[in-house]
Amino acid sequence: MSTITESPTGTNAVRIDDITKVFGRGAGAVTAIDGMSIEIRTGEFLAILGASGCGKSTLLSLVAGLEQPTGGSVEVGDHRVAMMFQEAALFPWLTVGANIEVPMKVNKVPRAERARRVAELLDLVRLTGFERKRPHELSGGMRQRVALARALAQDADVLLMDEPFGALDAMTRDILHDELERIWRERSLTVMFVTHNVREAVRLGDRVVLLSSRPGRVIAEFEVEGERPRRIDSVQIAEQAATITDRLREEVSRHA
Amino acid sequence: MPETSTKDSAVQGLDALELQPRRGTAERGPAEVARGIWAATWPKLAAVALVLLAWQAVVWSGWRSEWVFPGPDRVLPTLFHEITTPEFWEAVRVTMRRAFIGFALALAVGVVIGLAVSQFKPLRVAIGSLITGLQTMPSIVWFPFAMLLYGISESAIMFVIVLGAAPSIAGGLTSGIDYVSPSLLRAGQVMGLRGVQRYRLLIIPAALPMFVTGLKQGWAFAWRSLMAGELLVIINQQNSIGWALSQARQLNDAERLLSYIIIVLAIGIVIDVFFNWADRSLRRRWGITR
């Protein structure tokens, strides 16, 4: 593809190039994504916004390599990709510490090193002292922070997040936005953050990509203005969110 | 930076608020522990007393003469005398050895079949419903065939125990594996869990609670098959609980007969308590119930 030369390699962590994803065959086939191209700069926080049926989750699965696109290509180069979901999906039979150790076991990290890094990651997500608790003893927000620590234990520098705070109450979500922003900066992560919450997208993203529904396509991109750390209730965020919401409504009403 | 420190304490404050203090479990004095044990025990004691009373009432009613249907006043002393004899312990030892060996065999067969069925789709289509069918079969119908195959021997009993218990164990394992939550599977996939490691770190522990339920059911079938087997397949001169039961019947010794029935009940309860304990502590650990 000719577009590949547009930006030099190394500055882009993820390049999604004209991908198409079709599920099923023949008359029952569903096109989830149709000709989507997104480039994510290394260290960028990209928020991906869309209504139902925009193929957000499919997009992340493709970037994570869990599925293969029907057409086009996804390149992540040497970057290691981790993923988080709306549900923490921690292993309930393991303690918090042992959960964080799982990806390290997969990567054959020696035991002493694992213990050291569990302590470090727990400190990062401010859960020092909870190492021996079980997931069901924690609150939803704490579980998501453990899931974040577990994702980071994969040694990933690209973090895919599929509505990770969707099931949390507003106050917890607010605090986790601060936490995620802090960890994103401290660890120089590249984040692809899927959400259907416009304000959340504007609060967190350097850039917001708006997707159409059925099939999923990029319909608009917004560079977010405002110094970090931002406040979700600031006027600046609200104004930008209003613009994006209008655009999103337009897209949704197209399906009426 | 003061701003950061307020944010720090906001995180910690929220954590502290969201972790509800566990009510009443923190400090329990010996008096409360004793009260707890008593609260759990007295209904059981009352139930036993009620059963004994009902039993005695039937005896008093004169429904059957006392040498056929003795009351607890005659059976219980026989029972207590019986459990002091070496023959009794020999019988229990033989029966329990058969039970454990049979159950272990059923476990091995059940696990292999369960894993195979959960792995290979054609196999599931082929024998999946057969396994369910076998579970519904009263295992006693296998005994004539088992005796034809193995003669009057322990092997015949083992054969029927395995046929009775293995389907439940296999079924528990297969449904345990089938019902591993998709979100856990996805998390495992994202973390790169594959092959043996995927089974060791994810599938097996996730399937464990349902597997234990299968084991419990399998044990119930094994125990029934064994009792039926010991009554039907009387191996010459070998002492066992089943043999003691049929001996007592032949000698019209109703007191001993009822004693051994109580023993069979007691063993069943003890093993059931064990399985329930295992089941409950697993579920608590897994966070399914608190």
Structure write-up:
Chain B: Keywords: Cell membrane, Membrane, Transmembrane, Transmembrane helix, Transport. Chain B: Belongs to the binding-protein-dependent transport system permease family. The complex is a heterodimer of chains A (256) and B (290). Chain A folds into 2 domains: 174 residues, Rossmann fold (3-Layer(aba) Sandwich), CATH 3.40.50; 70 residues, no CATH class. Helices cover 35% and strands 24% of the residues of chain A. Chain A contains 7 helices and 9 strands, in the order βββαββαααβαβαββα. In chain A, the strands form 2 sheets. Chain A has a 6-stranded mixed β-sheet, with helices on both faces. A 3-stranded antiparallel β-sheet of chain A has the order 2-1-4, with helices on one face. In chain A, β6, α5 and β7 form a beta-alpha-beta unit. In chain A, α3 crosses α4. With 290 residues, chain B is mainly alpha-helical. Chain B has 11 helices and no strands. Chain B starts with a helix and ends with a helix. The chains are: A alpha/beta (256), B mainly alpha (290). Chains A and B meet through α2, α4 and α5 of A and α1, α8 and α9 of B.
Characteristics:
heterodimer, A: 256 residues, alpha/beta, Rossmann fold, 2 domains, six-stranded mixed beta sheet, three-stranded antiparallel beta sheet, 7 helices, 24% strand, globular, B: 290 residues, mainly alpha, MetI-like fold, 11 helices, ABC transporter permease (chain B)
List the helices and strands and how they pair.
The complex is a heterodimer of chains A (256) and B (290).
Chain A: E1 12-23, E2 30-41, E3 45-50, H1 56-64, E4 71-75, E5 81-84, H2 96-106, H3 111-124, H4 140-152, E6 158-162, H5 170-186, E7 190-195, H6 198-204, E8 207-211, E9 218-223, H7 235-253
Chain B: H1 2-18, H2 30-60, H3 72-82, H4 86-119, H5 121-136, H6 143-150, H7 154-178, H8 182-190, H9 195-232, H10 241-250, H11 254-286
Helix pairs in contact in B: 3-11, 4-5, 4-7, 4-9, 4-10, 5-7, 6-7, 7-9, 9-10, 9-11, 10-11
Membrane topology (chain B): Multi-pass membrane protein
Keywords (chain B): Cell membrane, Membrane, Transmembrane, Transmembrane helix, Transport
Subcellular location (chain B): Cell membrane
